[in-house]
Every structure is written in C-alpha cells, then in structure tokens.
Amino acid sequence: MITVLTGGTGGAKFVDGLRRILPPEELTIIVNTGDDHDWWGLYVSPDIDSITYVLAGILSPERGWGVRGDTFHCLQGMKEFGEPSWFSVGDRDLATHLLRTILLSRGRTLSETARIIAEKLGVRSRVLPMSDQRVQTRIQTPVGELSFEEYFVKRRYQDPVKSVRFAGASESKPAPGALEAITKADAVLIAPSNPITSIGPILAVPGIRDALRETAAKVVAVSPIIGNAAVSGPAASLMASQNLSATIAGLADYYADFLDMLIVHDSDAETAHALSSNGVEFVSTDILMRTTEDKVRIANSALACALPENADVQVAS
Amino acid sequence: MITVLTGGTGGAKFVDGLRRILPPEELTIIVNTGDDHDWWGLYVSPDIDSITYVLAGILSPERGWGVRGDTFHCLQGMKEFGEPSWFSVGDRDLATHLLRTILLSRGRTLSETARIIAEKLGVRSRVLPMSDQRVQTRIQTPVGELSFEEYFVKRRYQDPVKSVRFAGASESKPAPGALEAITKADAVLIAPSNPITSIGPILAVPGIRDALRETAAKVVAVSPIIGNAAVSGPAASLMASQNLSATIAGLADYYADFLDMLIVHDSDAETAHALSSNGVEFVSTDILMRTTEDKVRIANSALACALPENADVQVAS
C-alpha cells in the first residue's frame, strides 16, 4: 500500500505517473483541503477534484485543472450577470460541485463525498481529504488576509506574503483512515506540491505529522524546488514567509522531522551532497514532469527510493 | 400600461408578440410560479425564466424554454453521476438558477430576484412572480401526488389527473405591485396558457381574482383551446379534472367572473356564436402562433380588443 500526500497541480502530475504504474487499489491519496472555498453557493474542493479527475483519466492535460474538453458557458453567464468569475468552473466540472454540495447538505462528510464522487467516476484508488473539518489556508498580505484561492487565482500571487495560517486546523481531526494510511503504508510519498500551502495544511491537522514521524514506512518527497525557485507557482515566496530558504535545504528543514529521502533535480546534486546533515538522504534525477514519460519515470524513482527491495519497480536512470 | 397573466411555453409566444409591438416600459407580466421547484439544490422558476428570456430575446426558439444555443454539459455530468436528469437545465441557464439561489439565500424575495435577473439581462418590462410566497401546484394521480414538473416533464403528462391543488396558496399574498398592475392597467391580457396549471395558480393567490373582477380595464384572454383539445400540452385533461369541458365554453366558464372577451380560433366561431350567455364576448381569428408574424398578429388582436379606442393598434384581419 502506497500513500501519497499531495496538493492539486504539481501533485496531480506526480499522481498521474503513479496511477500508470501501480494497481489502483494499492494507492491512497491524502489531499489538501485548505483551498476549499464557497463559490456561487457551492462547496468547491479544488485539490480533491484535480486528484480525482487525474485518477479518473479526465483531468484536462492543457490546463492541469478541471475536466478535459470542458466548456465554460455557465461561467460566461455568471460573468455577464456581474457575479464573481475569477475562479474558472467548467460546465462539466460544475456537476462535481453541485453533487458535493448536495451530498454535504444531506449530512455526508467531506470524506464520504470524496469517496462517492471518485467511485462514480470509476476511480478505484482511495482519495481522502486531509480532514472532514473545515481548515482554511489564510494568507496575510499588505492588502489584507486572503483565502488561498483569492491569493493564488484571483490576485495571481502578486502580493508579498507576510504570513500563512491554517484557520480551524487545531480543532480538526484527520479524516477517517488517514492516520492508518500513513502508519500502515509500505511507503509514504510527498508529492512535489507547494510545501507551505499544499502539504503544510495537511501537516497542520493534529496527528498527521506524528503519524509521519512514527510510520515504519520510508517517507520520500519529490522536490517542488529547483535551485532557489519553484518549478511553478508561489512556493518560493511562501517558504520565505515561513523563514525557510527557498531551496532544497529549506525544504529538507521543513520536512526534517519525518522525511527519509528527498528527490532533487540533477542541478541540485552538489548542493545536496554538501547537506545531508539532518538525517535526510538525497537522490538526484531530472524531476521536471513535462511528458507522461517524465511523470512515470519520476513516479518510478520515488517508488524505487521508498521500496528498494521491490523488484517490480525499476529505478529510473 | 398593459398587464399580462401568463405561464411559460404558450404564454412566452404571446409575450414575444407583445414585446415586439409595445414599448417595454408599458408591459408588466405576472407570472405563474406554481411550477417552481428545487433542482440539484437550486431554486428553479421555469415560467419566470421563460418569460424573462423571451423578453431579453434569448429564449431558445427551437425548444421554447431555456437559452438559445445553450449546451448541456453539466446535465450530462449529473446524468453520469446517477443524479436526476429528467429536467433539462442548460449550462448558460444554470447561471440564472445559481444567481437566483444565491440571491434568495441572501434574503432577497422572489420578486427581487426576478427584477434583478431581468435587469441584468437588459429587460425593461416588469416581470413579477404571482407571489413571493411558495405556492406549489400539486397533481393527484393514480401513482400519487406529483409536483407539476414531475407530472409534466418527468412523466410527460401520461397520468390520469384526479385533482389539482395549489399548496400554500391560501397563505400566500400577491407579489408587491401585482394587484396594482391589474387594477391600474389600461388592459389586462390572459395569455393562451394552460388555464388550470399556469393561470390557475395565479388566480389562487388571494386578492388576484378580486382585482381582475374589479379592474376598470378590459380583461381579454386568448384561448389555449381549439375545438375540444389544447393547442399543446395537457390542458384538456386538466380541465376535465376540474369538471370543466375542454372547450372554449369550459374556458369561458372558468374565467367568467372577470373575463370581458375571449379570442378563439376561427374554427370555434360558430360555437362561440351559440354561447355568449355569461357576459363574455367572443372574437375569432387564427390563434395558432407558428411564426413571429403570427405572434405579432395575435398580440395586436388582443390589444385591439382590449383597447379598441387606441388608434396605434391595428386589429388583425
């Protein structure tokens, strides 16, 4: 059993690689829900959706979010009505938000909605929200406190970040099955997602970080950082806001208490060689995921690092 | 000022004729809301939507409901999710339902939502729901009591009708402005809508029928019945359920207490000539609305009957 902690965009690429090489029943994904937000009166869970869509094989490869080939006629209508339109919801995608909202209004938990929607889309891997309670990533900026989607999508992460908090985290509990998925896994993989706002909220749920420390499985992360920049998105400035250097050293520090191995880009191999002081082992390869072959190769690398005894898994070059 | 009482489909054709010949500010439409229903957690008001869309010039001419050129990708998604899909909601149309639901959840009345949505679509005529309170048309059939949409759309009006009731009507009040729109009108027109389930719910709102009796304006209806059948839909069997003959005689009886004139089809001219006992005057013409020209001609006929002194309005042949 392989358990993955992930956010949406970069994480979805990594999960896309994993789903192509693992039997679906052997894969459990614990997903960030700190970006969940109310949109047009509907409950939207962007990272759960991206992961569910990629596992179902319907994630838009061009956009990296939403459904392949979707249209945006409802969004256009809302825009013409003068309603908020900065968060792009496709027409087919809307069915997911409607169904989740209906299920929640009937008293279903967020975990149950994730399971039901995944099953209806033919997904046989397990998709778990990090928590059934509402935990909201809040970004303090000079223009005020923003939700993650306001910061990331509406304002295109242009605002300097003063700090980040996870509202509701201290009162939250891990979703049913999440702790066991970590403690009983054969391997735990941390996707190359934004450490602060994709993996950070998961780690903020009480019990999750302890489970990562305690699991007998190897915990292996793929770096979202190359040199001193993020492969994509605002990870670097968010890391700086947490007094972390936006490098593999900062990343290794952030994950140090539970991480066994960090897969970094070839160009960071020398930096990695000079580190290796805090108990984290480094492996370098080409971690950029441009093609399906890249995704499969990185997924294979991560599995090979986490399960070195597993003869079925081939270590990438 | 011209005030029209109407349902959706047939009524929308009549309103389409009127909007092409009247200044928009002179037109007030009081619309049936007995068909309103919850769909995917959203508040849907089918007749308000059809009337608003036709006034905005965006009603689908092929379907007679929904938005011209709309797509149905969300509906397809909901169908694949195994959710109810018998009520066709288009993607652009969905924006209307989302906006109305958002506005209602913020405490707006149904009248306010109708006004706001109409304004946003550029409609300058006044669209009034019959009431801000929920009045639900309920159809008793051998398979049980059905909502109007269940009876009409889901089961395609195949069930014998035992009786019809308007749940909530006795506690409802006319929407703000509705009574004045009738009592102060220069003419009141009853659209060729189903008398029982489109006009009937409006008449069931306490005060409306009295206002129609008391107004100094002429009240003129266009018949939805030709011979002993409805031009479209289940009007005939619904009239029979109310012990009315499904003819212009039954229609004149149903509206007798307030109707001044009934415009019937040429083929009913002889029948009309033999009636004219209950104070209702009859006029015959070709009342079928197949083309825009037909709609304009019928609208002109109705106005000429209601405002015979108005030189601007031409009586149709």
Kindly describe this structure.
Chain A has 317 residues and is of the alpha/beta class. Chain A has 13 helices and 14 strands. In chain A, the strands form 4 sheets. A 7-stranded parallel beta sheet of chain A has the order 5-2-1-9-10-13-14. In chain A, strands 7-6-8 form a 3-stranded antiparallel beta sheet, with helices on one face. In chain A, a hairpin with a 2-residue loop joins strand 3 (37-39) and strand 4 (42-44). The longest helix of chain A is centred in the N-terminal third of the chain and has 15 residues, at 91-105. The interface between A and B is medium-sized, with 29 and 29 residues.
The description of the largest β-sheet of chain A is: 7 strands, parallel
Which protein chains are joined by the largest interface, and how many residues does each one contribute? Answer: A-B, 29 and 29 residues
Shape of chain A: globular
Oligomeric state of shown chains: homodimer
Number of strands of chain A: 14
Low-confidence stretches of chain A: 313-317
Order of helices and strands of chain A: EHEEEHHHHEEEHEHEHHEEEHHEHEH
Please specify the SSE layout and strand pairing.
2 copies of one chain form a homodimer.
Chain A: E1 2-6, H1 9-19, E2 27-31, E3 37-39, E4 42-44, H2 46-56, H3 73-80, H4 91-105, H5 110-120, E5 126-129, E6 136-141, E7 144-147, H6 148-154, E8 163-167, H7 178-183, E9 187-190, H8 195-204, H9 208-214, E10 218-222, E11 225-226, E12 229-230, H10 235-241, H11 248-255, E13 261-265, H12 269-274, E14 281-285, H13 292-306
Parallel strand pairs in A: 1-2, 1-9, 2-5, 9-10, 10-13, 13-14
Antiparallel strand pairs in A: 3-4, 6-7, 6-8, 11-12
Helix pairs in contact in A: 1-2, 1-13, 4-5
